[in-house]
Amino acid sequence: METEQTTLQIHTPAGKVLRQALATLLIALLLLEGGLRLAVTSGWMPDPGPGTTNADLNIKMPMLDALAQREGGVDCIFLGSSMTNDDVDPEVFASRYGELSGTTVTCFNFAVATLTGEIAGGLSQILAERYHPDLLVYGTSARDYSKELGARALKDDGWFRYQLGEWNLTGWLKEYSMLYRTYLKILSDFNPANREYAISVRQNTSPYGHFVVHVNVISLEGQNTIHEETLLKKDFAGLKRLVSLDGAGVSVVVMEIPVHEAFLPEYVNEKSEDYYRLFFDPATEILTKAGIPFIHTLTGTRFTAPDEEWADLKHLNNKGSARFSAWLADEIWQLEQAGVITWGED
Amino acid sequence: MDSDDVKVKLKTFICTELLNNADYPIMDDQPLITGGLMDSFSLAQVGVFVEDAFGVYIPDTDLTVKNMDTLNLITEKILERAG
Amino acid sequence: MQIISWQFVVFVLVVLAVYYLLPRRGQNIWLLTASIGFLATWNVYSVVVLVVTVLVNYYAGRKIWRGDVKQKKWLWLGIGVNLAALFFFRFESSGYLERAIRALLSLSDLVNSFEMRILLPVGFSYYCLQAISYLVDVAQKQCKASTNLVDFALYMAYFPRMLSGPIERARSFLPLLSTQRVVDNEAISRGFTRIIIGLVRKVVIAGILSGYIAKDLFSSPASYSTLELIFQVFLYAVWVYNDFAGYTCIVRGISDFLGIPLSPNFNTPYFAHSFTDFWNRWHISLSYWLRDYIFFPLSRHLLRRKVNPRSAIYLAVPPLAAMLASGLWHNFGAYMIFWGLLHGIFQALEKLSARRKPVVKWEDRPLYKRLASIALVFLGVVLTWIPFASGSLSRVGGFMKAVFTSTVIPDITTLWLIPFFAITINFGLDLLQYRHNDELAIRRWPVFAQSALLAIALLAILVSFLGSQTALASFVYQGF
């Protein structure tokens, strides 16, 4: 009969190389983490940002952190897609608002390119919890409720989910490990897919988060128009989530972000009535129900800008954004005067 | 079959037919395949030469570095197959 | 279940834990169960094909072993069935059969939206070659026909090598299954080192490089500069090597933990000094199979028919046939046939040009000549990766045209340094292996050096895993 030996015949001590390697690795990681934290807190190195899948967010969050630290907090935050990103200059807004109210406010434009209603709902909650602004202005348009766009990837991002209360390892690491954040920043900087975009965002974004555009191309060619039967429910749900923040220390205002007059009839299904039927009316209904002011730019109180102030048919250039931001400050001031919102009082 | 006889015949064949150099000084334990002197084309030739010269068939799967790398190994294989 | 996944890590740990507790017979049954379970995580259909293939070949092997006069009949029948199945699955998965059936059906306008596509069963092209080698070896009395169905099934189904080899031989693998396995400190250390090297190759090197190889390189080559096109093909060469060699290292490491050593598949192929040498270093288990069952029989047949060994027929026909078979084994596309033929032609030309020159020992050649040979073979191999990677012959044409006519200005940035970094790690690993003729040469280093290197390797692997989530996420910023 065959006598069976055991297969596993390990003699101790074993795994010296592995034990030494793990110890070395642990010490090296702790030293690196400590070194990087020191470098960032003492200003030798810029904060790498949370390393999400969204380059705008990664760049703007350290900017907002720095601003909030410098100014002792932030009073108002603008949120929206690239349309808000290009259209709202917080410096102009704050200056005009200061003239009207006699108070000094600090504002930041946290708009993220291709942000949709769904993501705006989560992002607004994160911003409100982290920075406690008095005023949150969400600039929105029909585009934010249509089809899949880039920033939707954020909803699967570990950091984004972690911030919204869903614990996960990468989210935790992105929030707390400077080493991991730095690593992701390096990786992202070297990623050919988003490198050029990130460089452009860094170069053209003001310290207040405004993406400054100087071009002026008024043409229907190359403009994405919406061709949809209905707009997305999940994005309207995001809008509801955003407006539900109103009240707990923050006033929420939603504005209809403008498009060029010539574009409106083409914008949704090449019928201007579809813009109202599919976007404007459902949004108005949500806002009315929640008691949130809706600043109109294309209907009633209109915002108009001459052709040379448009970057393209959906975005204002630097000239247009200066005019729009001052106009917006007037509108907000009027809402405050009418007692619809309260903010900005120190 | 005599081992030395086999080796002499093999050596002559390898030097003249495979290495194109009749005077090549091959040692009995010199690596031929791993030493870069023989490849699979030459191995096939050795296989057929062994069939013709010694009436011994070495199966294709035995034409390996393990069995055929030196004169000693090839001779051993031939004698084993013949035996 | 993919090899690089947490599920697979858990699977292997469970397999090992139970395996170490069982006696040898139980271990084989357990490994077979685990292997079938592993295959079933891909699809049950692959399990069915495997079971049928195992039964057919087991039976054929027994028949061949028992029979004397009629053994040839069973041998050819067995080989025929395996080859026919491989041919069918390859033909089908290449889409030819679907097209043929559609063409036939549309004649009578019977079914227009008829959906049919049978996938190549997982691992079939690998274990099918194992089955053929088994039958031939049994017929030549090189190996006894297995009398143990569990062991034979495990030879075919063994999960570490199921997905992409190595292609094992029954005569060396079956004896391992009938003896007591011992996994001691040495085996664990070997296996662990292999897994780490494999992960560095597959996750770090191939992982980095895959991010730098343009997905549309062959579909729209005109949008790249000549320099970028050439650079990308080089990246592809290093990527495809590390991806495959990395996988092989990992599965060999896992198999070491089971006390069942698997055959090597790569031995610094890009240091090959001739095309024949390349095939002794690249996908070795496949290339040895082609050598033993196509190249040698054909070469010896020609020589017996008194074909001059210095003639073009002897020097060209066997390599062309073997490499053509290799191309067809990979895929039935014309581009793969072209790839195989290119390799065959390179080997034949190499032999023809040297057929009357005295052979000089590799070490006796001057250094510059050795380096030149290595560089030349590498360039030739890189060239063959173009059809291999392109996916169609017309794309090969488009790519070559773009290489010579592109007017795009190359966009050379610091980004190019990252793939160079990956290539350097690959070169370091290869050089170490080449100098010591041992892929585990790192284990000869002092303990502190091994520890330091392991720490760096673990960090690189960790970083690549964590980073892959970000790197793979697409950054889409359309005009909004």
Please describe what this structure looks like.
With 346 residues, chain A is of the alpha/beta class. Chain A is 49% helix and 7% strand. Chain A has helices spanning 16-41, 55-71, 82-87, 90-101, 117-131, 158-163, 169-176, 178-189, 192-204, 233-243, 264-267, 272-290, 318-337, and strands spanning 8-9, 76-80, 107-109, 135-140, 251-256, 294-295. The radius of gyration of chain A is 24 Å and the shape is elongated. Chain B has helices spanning 3-18, 40-54, 65-68, 71-82. The longest helix of chain B is centred in the N-terminal third of the chain and has 16 residues, at 3-18. Chain B has one domain (3-82): ACP-like (Non-ribosomal Peptide Synthetase Peptidyl Carrier Protein, Chain A). By secondary structure, chain B is mostly helical. Chain C is globular. The chains are: A alpha/beta (346), B mainly alpha (83), C mainly alpha (480). At the A-C interface, strand 1, helix 1, helix 8 and helix 9 of A face strand 1, helix 9 and helix 18 of C.
User: How far is the first residue's CA from the last residue's CA of chain C?
Assistant: 39 Å
Low-confidence stretches of chain C: 109-115, 470-480
Task: Tally the beta strands of chain C.
Answer: 1
What is the averaged pLDDT score of chain C?
A: 90
Main structural class of chain C:
mainly alpha
- Main sheet characteristics of chain C: none
Spatial separation of the terminal alpha carbons of chain A: 92 Å
Strand fraction of chain C: under 5%
Query: What low-confidence regions of chain A span 5 or more consecutive residues with pLDDT below 50?
Result: none
Question: What are the key terms here?
Answer:
heterotrimer, A: 346 residues, alpha/beta, 5-stranded parallel beta sheet, 13 helices, C: 480 residues, mainly alpha, 0% strand, globular
